[in-house]
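--- STAGE predict ---
source: upstream dedup step, 1 unique chain passed
mode: sequence only
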Amino acid sequence: MWLGWLATSGWLAPDSRPGERVTEGAVGAYIADLQPMPAPASLANRVRRLYTAMRLFEPDRDWGWLAQLKARLRRAEKATKSKPEALTSPGQLYKLGLDLSDPKMTEDHYNQAQRYKALQCLARPLEALRRQDGGGQDEG
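--- STAGE serialize ---
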């Protein structure tokens, strides 16, 4: 994405080394062009990837300014990530899934599509718990 942006915006010097292309001015222009992005996480992730790549391509170069920018964007991203208090907990979703998957209720009040939604309500919190417990990897 970085190289594509450099090429389309006129910042690409084809004969330059990767680290020579990553300047404060170029990165500032890149961020300005990306600023309308709907999610601050997207912007933070692009700068994080650029920083990681530059540390691999030119590890001896001082990338402190880019690290500071990455950290500032990460803080801004976290500040915008507020979970609403109305967010349903995995336990509540699981209970709802059990309630909705009751065969008596399903036969009397719900069609097949609603039963499928009930199964999804059961699966989502279990998937979240699996991820919290280490990705569901088998031990032993």
